[in-house]
Amino acid sequence: MLIRLLLLSCLIFLVHPASAEQAPTAFPGAVGWASGTAGGRGGKIIRVTNLNADGPGSLKAAIESKGPRIVVFEVGGQIDMGKTSLEIKEPFLTIAGQTAPSPGITIIKGGIDLKTHDVIIRHIRVRTGADGEKRMSGWEADSISTVAAHNVIIDHCTFMWGVDENMSASGPRFTGSTVEDWRKGTSRNITFSYNLAAEGLADSSHPKGEHSKGSLVHDNATGILFYRNIWAHNVERSPLLKGGVQAAMVNNLIYDPAKRAVHYNLMALEWAGQPYVTGELSAVGNVMRGGPSTDEGLPFLMLGGDGDLLYYGKDNIAVDKHGKALPAFGRYGETQAKLVPSKKPVSWWPGLSVLPARDVETHVLALAGARSWDRDMHDIRVLFFIAEGRGEILDDESRVGGYGTVQPTAAPFVESDWNLDTMEPKSGAYPGQKRGPQEALSPRDRVMRQ
Question: Which of the two ends of the chain, N or C, has the fewest CB atoms closer than 10 A to its terminal CB?
């Protein structure tokens, strides 16, 4: 299994069929209601030339530039944000982490708050972490969150050690006076595809105390697609869908959830005075596998709060760490909320290619996360521990070695080597992928010798 995983990890990209009305897509394999976004296509090329948190040549300066732009990297290594988060406020942006020289770009001690529209982010790692903050001290950054954003694709990225969530779609609940207004005022048309969201920190610096959370989809967010992602070692929210959300979950792997895996909750306290809106979820071909931290008998889907959920489920597998079947549904509130079964998919994007659930684990372990051809040590550790049924919920990143020291690298970005419409390499090989499958073995060997 391990050798097969490593051989598969040399694959560069996978093309999925898309419906004709969705063409042209952002890049080969783009899916979901945001799949047609151009991001920064046709705009200026901005080169990131240093790993500084701010200033000329930095990622932050490139993000804050105005107009359509494609951000490429002539450096590789860690960007230390010093407990601040990058804010993306200017639309029409592509961040092409695949252009960075090995080992790629990792943002540490911070996160990303995406507050605009028409943005594509690929092949970036974000490792937030507590960075020595005391328990409940108030540092509570997400690794990434869309905030009232729309037409966004987050693809092939790694998000770890979030102090709030690892990977979320958020925004205000009630903007305007109608349900249509509410939906326009918060995050909508967001695709999370082939990402790794792992090891949300539990008993850490969040002011609420325990807060190891995978993904939050805030009330009334619509057009949200989770496609072929991995959630691993998060206490809850893999994901949590709040009131009135419309979402689809397809071919995801949830490993070692502690208290809840997928859950839906319209909270009466938060909706006081507002008419309830029924949520919608299609869950197809997903796998939930219990691990060392998982409660006995944990269901795949749980319903809390007061609002109803219209639900379509098909070919989902849920087992404990010994392979014993787990319940498909459970509750964590004895209220009037109802799970309303649907005989056909709801909130469903028509161009989706769906794998059988039995093929999902091997597929996403090989391809999910940043730079599958150029894994770093922590991604390899998490993925191998999933495959082996190991790992745990963390309170602090230091338990697994922390940020470490990464030597910066540099290489020029050559425009003629890339298809600037999709930011795919013309050669079919990304930076660092030159020698074929055997190259993928060296990081694994380094991990196994530790």
Answer: C
Distance separating alpha carbons of residues 202 and 448, to the nearest angstrom: 27
Strands 222-227 and 279-284 turn out to be unpaired
For residues 383 and 366, give the distance between their C-alpha atoms in angstroms, rounded to a whole number.
Answer: 9
SS3 content of the chain, % helix, strand, coil (to 5): 15, 30, 55
**Angle 76-428-41 from CA coordinates, rounded to 5°:** 70
Shortest CA distance to 267 belongs to which of 251, 255, 279, 258?
Answer: 279
Name the nearest CA neighbour of 282 among 346, 338, 228.
Answer: 346
> What's residue 132's pLDDT?
66
Residue 318, CB-side half-sphere exposure with 13 Å CA sphere: 23
**pTM of the prediction?**
0.91
Total domain count, the chain? 1
Average pLDDT of span 47-69: 98
CA distance 39 to 11: 24
Strands across the sheet containing 216-217: 86-88, 112-114, 144-147, 167-170, 216-217, 240-242, 262-266, 301-305, 329-331
Angle between helices 377-388 and 441-449 (to 10 degrees): 80
Per residue in 288-339, pLDDT tens? 999 999 999 999 999 999 999 999 999 999 999 999 999 999 999 899 999 9
Which SS3 state, helix, strand or coil, does residue 440 take?
helix
Q: Which amino acid is at 243?
A: G
The count of residues in the chain is: 450
Q: Domain of 324: which CATH number? A: 2.160.20.10
**How many C-beta atoms lie closer than 10 Å to residue 402's C-beta?**
17
With 0-12 CB in 10 A as exposed, 13-18 as middle and 19+ as buried, what is 23? exposed
Q: What is the pLDDT of residues 128-155, one digit of tens each?
A: 998 767 766 555 678 999 999 999 999 9
